[in-house]
Amino acid sequence: MVNWARLSFYFDDESWVVRYLVVETGVVETGGWPGGRPVLISPNSVSKVSRRDRLFHLTLTKKQAENRPETDAHLRGAEAVTGYHIEARDGEIGHVHGFLLDDETWAIRYVEVATRDWWPGRKVLVSPIWIEKASWMESKLYVGLSREAILSAPEYVESTRVDRRYEDQLHSHYGRPPYWLHEKCQQ
Length: 187
Fold this sequence. Notes:
187 residues, Photosynthetic Reaction Center, Chain H, domain 2, 12 strands, 34% strand
C-alpha cells in the first residue's frame, strides 16, 4: 500500500477509488515537459510503482498527459478532504489525516484518522467501506463505528507495515469482515 504524504490525487466519492494522480510537471523527469502546471494522470497509465524511490513509471506521451479530463461531480481531491471531521455514531472523534492506497487496484483502503483531540498524537485506520455518509458541504465523514472502537483501535504510525496480518487484526478489532472477502464475492 502507498502512503505518501505529498501524493495528491482525485478519487471517486462513491467507490473510493483513485481516478487521477496530480503530478507537477516540474518534478517529472520528462525530457522537456513544461513545468509549473499540474497534470492529471490516470492510475491506468502507471506501469510500475517504485516504492523505494517513491516514483511512478508512466506509459504516457507528453500529448496524452496534457489532455485534461472532463470534470466529474463525484471527484474529490485528497488534499481537500484531508482535515475533514470524523463523526462516529456517538460523536466527533477526530479528523482525516491521510489515506492508504492499494497501488495495484488504486482503491483507498484506509482513511488515516487523527484522534489528537481525544488522545494526543494518536492515529488509527478506518476503512472507507465503514463510512455511512459524507457531508461534503460540512466537511464531515460519518463512520458507523463507536468512538470507543476507534479510540481503542490498533495505533497506526507511518512506519507500520500494513500487511494482511495487520489488516486481520484491524478488521477483527472493529468486528467487520475484511474487504478482500467482499471483493472475492464480487468476482
